[in-house]
C-alpha cells in the first residue's frame, strides 16, 4: 500500500532509540469527550457506529491533530471490538461506559464464542478506518494502532463491564485455571491477527493496553497475563516478517504492573509505557538503556493551574531525559479536562 510521505517521524525515531530534534508527545485517549468537537459528533452517532464507519472514525482521529501540535494520531476505536468479533454484544452507555449484557459465567460459556475469528470479516472496518486515516493524515504524523491485551479483555467479558474488584474474572483464574488459559489463548490468537491486519492496513506503531493489570498481583500476572503479552509481540513481528510487511515498533502499557517492570522490558517490546505511580529515574534504572519509556504524567496534573502544570511537566522531562523517551500521560485523559491544559502539556514538552 502506498501512503503520503511521513513528515514527522519523532515518535518512530524515539521508539527505535534514534536521536530526536524534539521529544515526541501524544496523549492516551486524545480523541474523546474532553473535546467539544467530539461531543458534537458523538451526540449524533452511537459510539460503535462511529468505530464501524471509517469516515467518522477517521474524522475523530484527526480532531486532536487539527487542534494540537501532537506527534502521533491513534486510530479511533475501542479495545472491546474483539469481544464483539467473538460474537458478544457490547454496548456503550452514556454515563455508564461499556456494558456486555451477556457476560461469560462458567467455562461452558466459552462455547458461545465464535472462533476462530476471521479478522477481515469481523474487524475489517477498523482496517478500512486505518487506511483512510493514513491518507487523510497526509503524512503529518504517524498513526498508532492498538488492541486490548488478553487479560484485560477477559475481565470485561466475564464482568460484563467495568468493576471495582474484578472479582468474577479473578475467580475464574483461581477456580478454572485451565479454562482461563484457553480463553486467554483464544484472545491471544485473535489479537495477533488483528494487530497484523492493522499493520497491513497502515498502522505505524502498535500499542497493547493491559489496563486491568492493576487488579493482579505478581503471581497471577506472571501466570496469566505476561505470557500472552510476550507471545503477542513475538508472533506479530514474526508474522509481519513472513508477510514481508514492515516490522513496526510495539508498546506495552500494563497499568499497575509496577512489580513486573523488569519482566515487561524483556518481552521484546520497543516501548514500555509507565503509569503515573512509577518514578521515571528508578524505572530507567530498572529497565536499562535499551528500551524506550513512555509516560507518565498523572492525568490529574491537567487540573492544576497552568504554572504548576508546566512545573510538573518540566520535572518529569528532567527525570526521563530526552533519549529513548515518548511523553504521554500515565493513563487516559478524563472527559472533564480542559483542552487548553492539553495544549500546555504538549507545548511544554516541545519547549525542551
Ligand atoms: C479499558 C479501555 C477501554 N477502551 C480503551 C481502553 C484502554 C485504555 C485505558 O485504559 O483507558 C482504549 C480506547 N478507547 C478509546 C480509544 C480511542 C483512541 C484514543 O486514545 O483517542 C482507545 C485507545 C475511545 C473511547 N472509549 C470510550 C470512550 C467514551 C465513550 C463515549 O463517548 O460514550 C471513548 C472516546 C468508552 C470506554 N471504553 C472502555 C471504557 C472503560 C470506557 C468507558 C470509560 C470512558 O468513557 O472513558 C474500554
TrEMBL record:
The enzyme's E.C. designation: 4.1.1.37
GO cellular component, one term: cytosol
Subcellular location, principal: cytoplasm
Family listed: Belongs to the uroporphyrinogen decarboxylase family.
Protein name: Uroporphyrinogen decarboxylase
Uppermost EC category: lyase
Keywords: Cytoplasm, Decarboxylase, Heme biosynthesis, Lyase, Porphyrin biosynthesis
Top-level taxonomic group: Eukaryota
CDD domains: URO-D
Pathway recorded for this protein: Porphyrin-containing compound metabolism; protoporphyrin-IX biosynthesis; coproporphyrinogen-III from 5-aminolevulinate: step 4/4
Gene3D superfamilies: 3.20.20.210
Listed PROSITE patterns: UROD_1, UROD_2
Catalysed reactions, as listed in the record: uroporphyrinogen III + 4 H(+) = coproporphyrinogen III + 4 CO2
Residue intervals of the Uroporphyrinogen decarboxylase (URO-D) domain: 24-33, 144-160
An annotated GO BP: heme biosynthetic process
Single GO MF descriptor: uroporphyrinogen decarboxylase activity
Subcellular location: Cytoplasm
The organism of origin for this protein: Cloeon dipterum
